[in-house]
């Protein structure tokens, strides 16, 4: 008579993320790009987000940069179309904060994230996939805004490499703003409140900067706020890379003298804070 040993059973639990055939890194990247593709497919079927992110800066470009250009006089002899272009392009990132936050909040509200949790995918892939798809939307919007800008008279004057570098700075800003949107969507999940907060982010950060007029044209008590606004540093950096800077920024403080350094530091700090807060809020909301 023989005895058969049986292993003790353990309660079943949801499948954990398993590395793909190419290892955990390749599996993680595969999950991320698959989820990004899902978001882009949904966008193709319902392109309202792309239209919103593109139309807002286009309306400002035509209404302010084109219709009112004869009324605007920028020190240094720079054409207003050249001066305003970087300020218009920055709106692509600012406009995208609200839609990104709403998309994340809806995913959490409708239980889509719970479905992802039941699959063997990397937890961080859910958020990274969202940011990559929203970055792609921002790139398409920037292309459309730039083409219209060329049509109304904007011209870069510093060659192909510096022009491309300026757009690289803008894409970095757009990516940071996608994480700000994730932070907003995971911590403030009321859709109406998110919509209002996104509009405030757009209006306050763009108008309290040098996007439309030089900082010297703002009231004295607002100038320090505008100078240290991250939008001002990004806009100034792009203008200098494109040869659209009127040359009056050097009269300001440290951000005006070192816009590239301030841009790098502030965007890095914003990204780290938004990633930390967004991931933490996502987990507390029941994501992973």
What is Rg?
23 Å
What is the count of β-strands?
Answer: 0
- Number of spatially distinct domains: 1
Which whole number gives the mean pLDDT? 82
User: What is the helix content?
Assistant: 55-70%
Largest beta-sheet details: none
Strand content: under 5%
Counting helices, strands and paired strands, the structural category is: mainly alpha
How many helix segments? 12
User: Which ranges are low-confidence, i.e. pLDDT below 50, for 5 or more consecutive residues?
Assistant: 1-20
Q: Tell me, briefly, the overall form.
A: globular
Order of helices and strands: HHHHHHHHHHHH
How far is it from the N-terminal to the C-terminal residue, by CA?
49 Å
Write the layout of secondary structure elements.
Elements (H helix, E strand, L loop, with lengths): L23 H22 L2 H19 L13 H16 L1 H13 L2 H6 L5 H30 L6 H29 L3 H17 L15 H6 L1 H13 L11 H4 L1 H26 L4
Helix pairs in contact: 1-6, 2-3, 2-6, 3-6, 3-7, 3-8, 3-10, 4-7, 4-8, 6-7, 7-10, 7-12, 10-12
């Amino acid at each position: 008579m023989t005895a058969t040993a049986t292993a003790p059973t353990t309660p079943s639990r949801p499948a954990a993320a398993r590395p793909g055939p190419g290892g955990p890194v390749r599996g993680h990247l595969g999950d991320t790009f698959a989820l990004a593709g899902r978001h882009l497919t949904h966008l193709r079927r319902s392109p309202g987000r792309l239209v919103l992110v593109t139309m807002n800066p286009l309306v400002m470009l035509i209404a302010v940069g084109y219709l009112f250009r004869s009324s605007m006089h920028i020190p240094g002899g720079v054409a207003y179309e050249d001066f305003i272009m970087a300020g218009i392009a920055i709106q692509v990132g600012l406009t995208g904060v609200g839609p990104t936050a709403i998309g994340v909040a809806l995913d959490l509200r409708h239980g889509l994230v719970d479905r992802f949790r039941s699959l063997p995918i990397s937890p961080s892939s859910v958020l990274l996939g969202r940011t990559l798809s929203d970055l792609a939307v921002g790139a398409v919007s920037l292309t459309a805004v730039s083409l219209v800008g060329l049509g109304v008279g904007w011209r870069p004057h510093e060659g192909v490499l510096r022009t491309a570098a300026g757009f690289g700075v803008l894409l970095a800003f757009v990516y940071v703003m996608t994480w700000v949107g994730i932070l907003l969507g995971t911590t403030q999940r009321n859709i109406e409140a998110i919509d209002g907060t996104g509009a405030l982010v757009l209006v306050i950060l763009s108008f309290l900067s040098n996007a439309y007029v030089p900082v010297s044209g703002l009231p004295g008590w607002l100038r320090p706020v505008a100078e240290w606004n991250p939008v001002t540093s990004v806009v100034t950096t792009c203008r200098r890379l494109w040869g659209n800077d009127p040359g009056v920024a050097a009269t300001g403080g440290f951000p005006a003298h070192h816009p590239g350094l301030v841009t790098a530091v502030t965007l890095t700090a914003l990204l780290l804070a938004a990633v930390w807060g967004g991931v933490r809020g996502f987990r507390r909301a029941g994501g992973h």
